[in-house]
Amino acid sequence: MTLCQLFLQPDAAYSCISELGELGIVQFRDLNPNVNSFQRKYVNEVRRCEEMERKLRFLETEIKKDELPIYDPEDNPDAPKPREMIDLEATFEKLDHELKEINTNADALLRNFNELTELKHNLTMTQGFFDDAISHPVGVMEDVGGEREMELGGQTTTTAAGMKLGFITGVVPRERMVAFERMLWRVCRGNVFLRQAEIPELIEDPVSGEKLHKTVFVVFFQGEQLKNRVQKICEGFRANIYPCPENPHERRELAMGVMTRLEDLTVVLSQTQDHRQRVLAATSRNLRTWQIKVKKIKAIYHTMNMFNNDVARKCLIAECWAPVSELDRIQLALRKGSEASGGGTVSSVLNRMVTREQPPTHHKLNKFTQGFQNLVDAYGVATYREINPMPFVLITFPFLFAVMFGDAGHGILVTIFALWMVLKERSLKDKWRNQEVWTIFFGGRYIILLMGIFSIYTGIIYNDVFSKSLNIFGSSWRVRFGDDTLAKHDSVMLEPTPYNYTRSGDYRQMFSGTPYPIGLDPVWQLADNKITYTNSVKMKFAIIIGITQMGFGLFLSLWNHLHFNHRHAIYLEFLPQIIFLACIFFYLIILIFYKWTSFDGSKATDAPSLLIHLINMILFSYKTDPPSAAVFYTGQKQFQTFLILLAVLCVPWMLLGKPIYRIVMNKRRANRGVVLDADVRDTDTEDMLDDEHSHQQHHQHEVEMSEVWVEQGIHTIEYFLGCISHTASYLRLWALSLAHAQLSEVLWHMILHLGLSMNGYGGAIASFFVFMPWSSLTVFILLLMEGLSAFLHALRLHWVEFQSKFYKGEGYPFVPFSFRLLLDEAPVEA
Q1: 373 within some domain
Q2: Is residue 601 part of a domain?
Q3: How far apart are CA 169 and CA 251, in angstroms?
Q4: Nearest partner of 627 among 611, 643, 609, 610, judged by Cα
Q5: What is 533-582 written as a DSSP string?
Q6: Less Cβ crowding at N or C end of the chain, within 10 Å?
Q7: pLDDT along the chain (830 residues), means of 10
Q8: 3-state class (DSSP) for residue 196
Q9: 564: containing domain
Q10: Exposed (0-12), middle (13-18) or buried (19+): which is 293, by Cβ within 10 Å?
Q11: Pairing of β 193-198 and β 203-204
């Protein structure tokens, strides 16, 4: 990476930044960090872009409301020229104004249409009330105009029949009708008469626009006082009151007029909707293109706000980080941008700078490696030119996951799910993008794919498929017992020796002497001591894998020391670290393999215990009384004593070496007035600046030696104690593998086995019913919960146990100005 300075002509700056945005390999620095965002030069252009984005969001909302398809552009449109921004604003303003006017008119027409619809039903059903009164005069007169007792002012009076009554008609939602009737009765003290009828179809409310079940009502009353009360109650219940003539002839004429107006409004509404559809359909074809163009314009002006305006030179000055290998492409993009702007007399200038500032860390990634790099960056972004663990994590992470998740059946399910996401990634990319859990799964689809494939491999090694074993190649055990032996004993002992003689002298061959071709022999599925055996094997493999990975991490730290020219760190840090690890832990691995290869079935009972052996090695205790404490080889005591003393010597070597080296170097350079401190990096080249040049260019501040002693003491204690704790931490590989296998076996025996153990049609039906709970628990407990647990434990082993040996992660990422990244991070929802 190198720091560059750009001198851009104001007229050509927009086009040059546009070309660099399409290139996507330049990270600009903000040269105005203390200037408020509202006081920068191009703030008005940014506001205009935000206003255009608001109008485009409004258009998109209207298009989605009508459920019209939005078409994606076939190619990536270029950023429009500055003068085209005015045309875009005019187009968006016209569409925005036209669509708002259409919506306003349509809302007014629809409200009028809904009111007329309610009036039509109101007139129809009110006419039905009066027709009933004509056809049944006696009953109606008894109800309406009959002689009634009315309570007025505490006195009871009699109202003569035939007195004229007033009435009010309207429409009220059906769910409010009961409360409306009760309120009328209480407020009017029973001095009103109510008739009601439900409208058979849903009616759209003119105010809210919701489709509701409504009821037509007619309230008969006498006097102005009751009329006012009824009107206030109707207002309180938001009932729509409509006029209704008393004359039947006038009611029929009004109903005919309403029908005519409804027909006319239906035609007008249809034409309005057709016009709206045409406008939105034409907009939907260009909406995505417009959104991309506006985003690019806004990004360009936002970037230009980070530049300095040199009034004297009449140019814009920018600073940016860029890969050295891409400088030719950047020059070409600047030249192309200057030509596109009209070709001024002065072209844009790119000047490389030398700085002591740490450059950003840039990794060339693809969609396969991006997920693994995200796992590493979650711990910390690599320091500039520090070795990147991602290529190694790409293999070791899914492998460690699979060691804890080892089941071929579960691995197949995980692989199928990941393959579906990988093969359908184009269609699934923007689907459910707002769902956070789905986004996490989809972003790590390649990680999940490798985890599934590795789980299939470790499942084959464990010979574990949904907690059952497969006998593909035939077991290496060939044992035949008589019926008498099987009848007397619940279990029989299988000797691991190739030949065995029974008490009667009969020759029996139990073990063929040839191991199972791959993985665990299926006979262990029937063994009572299966867990004891698999625990021993998995525990040793966990120790071997852990120590090997930690040793590999130390050798990667050697790579860092060589690259950064830290020669003293090789002798004062790497050597004591690797020697300490080799004297105790590499030696333990050698003993494990030695025990496996030197003790067969005939000598298994005399094999020493590795755990007791390691404890005795640390305590210098060599007892021969129990067989488990016996030595492995001649001269073991003297050799192990030497290893322990060498490991103890590494502690003061690492604790004192670096501080003493700093003291000596500081005294050696005291005459020159420079104290040894950090290295100076020339970001223009791949090499470090030599000390003399760096001392001439920069002034170094003196480092307090007390800080060096404290830091080195903490680092020493952390490493030597960490070697022990980290080795024990890798035993989680064995523990989680055991837990996963046992949970799988419990689900098999307690659920699925219940159906499979039955015979006949009953067994088939029972298997059908128990399969659903078994498969559900397998997915939710073993795949999701156990999978997440194994994932987190594998992540911890890489962050703490592996990367702590060589990886500092004190850098910051290279975030280029790229239109592609801009559109990917803020996609337009389809």
Answers
A1: no
A2: yes
A3: 13
A4: 609
A5: HHHHHHHHHHHHHHHHHHHHHHHHHHHHHHHTT-HHHIIIIIHHHHHHHI
A6: C
A7: 90 91 92 86 92 93 89 85 90 93 88 84 78 57 38 35 71 87 85 83 72 85 85 86 81 85 89 91 91 93 90 84 92 88 72 90 92 93 93 96 94 96 87 82 94 96 91 80 71 67 52 83 86 91 96 94 91 94 94 87 77 86 65 85 94 92 85 50 43 39 74 92 94 95 91 85 88 92 94 96 92 92 64
A8: strand
A9: 535-678+704-725
A10: buried
A11: unpaired
Q: Compute the distance between CA of residue 698 and CA of residue 701 in angstroms, rounded to an integer.
A: 10
In the chain the first and final C-alpha atoms are separated, in Å, by 38
* Residues 22 and 351 sit within 8 Å (Cβ to Cβ): no
CA separation for the pair 392, 387 (Å, rounded): 11
Are both 708 and 823 inside the same structural domain? no
Distance of CA 360 to the CA centre of its chain: 25
Residue-wise pLDDT for 100-115, tens only, equals 999 889 888 888 888 8
Which residues, including other chains, have CB under 8 Å from residue 34's CB and lie 6 or more apart?
Answer: none
Give the end of a domain, one of 693, 725, 757. Answer: 725
Q: How big is the CA angle at 753 (ends 765 and 490), to the nearest 5 degrees?
A: 135
What is the domain count for the chain? Answer: 2
Helical residues (DSSP H) of 405-529, grouped into ranges: 408-423, 425-428, 436-443, 445-462, 483-488
* 428 within 8 A of 421, measured Cβ to Cβ: yes
Rounded Cα–Cα distance for residues 777 and 782 (Å): 7
Distance CA(622)–CA(619), nearest Å, equals 9
**22 belongs to a structural domain:** yes
Is position 666 within any domain? yes
pTM: 0.78
* pLDDT tens digit sequence for 184-241: 888 888 788 888 888 888 877 666 667 888 888 888 888 888 888 888 988 888 888 8
Identify the residue whose tokens are 């009972």: 605
| Same domain assignment for residues 821 and 709 | no
162: left (phi over 0), alpha (psi -120 to 50) or beta: left
Kindly list the distances between the CA atom of residue 503 and the CA atoms of 26, 93, 483, 507, in Å, as whole numbers in the listed order.
84, 102, 16, 10
Q: 719 and 821: one domain?
A: no
DSSP annotation of 206: T
